[in-house]
Amino acid sequence: MAVTFCAGGGAITCMCSGGGGYSAILGNEPLNLPILCGIPDQSETFSPGLWFDQCSDQVRLALSLGGTGWSAGGALPYNINQGNGGGTQNAAYHYGGTLGTGNPAVSCTAEYNGSSWSTSGALPAIRRLLFRGCVGTQNAGIAIFGFNAPANQNTSYEYNGTSWSSGGSGACTIRNGAAFGTQNSATAATGFTSTDQVGTQEYNGTSWSGGGNVITARQSINGAGQNQNQGWIAGGNDGGVIVSCAETYNGTSWATTGAVPSVQQIGGSTGRQAYGLLTGGRNASSIFSCTFLYDGYLWATTCGLITAVACNAAAGDGRNGITFSGQTPGGSVVSCTQEWNNPWDYYQIGT
Hints:
Elements: E1 2-7, E2 10-16, E3 22-26, E4 29-32, E5 35-36, E6 50-53, E7 58-64, E8 69-72, E9 84-88, E10 91-95, E11 109-112, E12 117-119, E13 136-137, E14 140-148, E15 151-159, E16 164-174, E17 178-182, E18 185-189, E19 200-203, E20 208-210, E21 222-227, E22 230-234, E23 237-238, E24 241-242, E25 246-249, E26 254-257, E27 268-272, E28 275-279, E29 291-294, E30 299-302, E31 313-316, E32 320-324, E33 337-341, E34 344-350
Parallel strand pairs: 5-6
Antiparallel strand pairs: 1-2, 2-3, 3-4, 6-7, 7-34, 8-33, 9-10, 10-11, 11-12, 13-14, 14-15, 15-16, 17-18, 18-19, 19-20, 21-22, 22-25, 23-24, 25-26, 27-28, 28-29, 29-30, 31-32, 32-33
């Protein structure tokens, strides 16, 4: 089979080879395409940016977006971690958390306009260890479950850009799971009651109902996705063991996909199912600055954070994202904001 793709005025014709790889013609110049699995790591460079992805059986193209990777943004009004957030790079929100290790939970809410943060209406109740992942928007947000000493919680709250109101209550009191979607189409998965859980709950803007069970029970997990039918979870803590496994959700059931390149928990996660961003977090011994991109199947390592953090929140997507708050390797709880502008974008151009 052959596919023609035009870029920069030149036709690229890609043809299947009998050996399971691809060769290509750019103008009159023959090319031997590198054979990779998924998105290339930042360190893997080749011209003209084409490769054969043997895991998806696609010829793929990397185009420069001119992004610079990570840069510093405006600081939050306070040092905080163990909260959550949502929205986009230029219209994000953050809520809940704790102002330091051993400190009680808080109800703070703040909004980001692309350069600076301002405080907004407080949550109706203090919360930390909320379900994690970019969920909702700055004007239609949602806070899901969490912890307020001495107990886990099952309440959710809805945000209208100014104030919070009570939403539906979940099936059980639970903390530290993954969340993704919108205010009217949200998913909450896994978490910790007295043990790690496999359950999924779905929200329709009014009430919660049961969804399909995840494959691997865990807590302290990362998750994101654009809606209830297109989400992902990755990493986390399974019975005291930090893991790298990842799963995707179609609104009914979960499927195993490629593992994160490193075992990881409590990082910042955001983006669509086919364009995810996972950054920061920690393993058993250290907090790190790693950043991983996700294409719905596999992960690639890209530019590291300016400041390594865990228990951070995130918003945006794999092209233009943002992470904020967290705890540094030295144990300090911070207010820093870091903005992500991807140097590359990726396209499928053949089958």
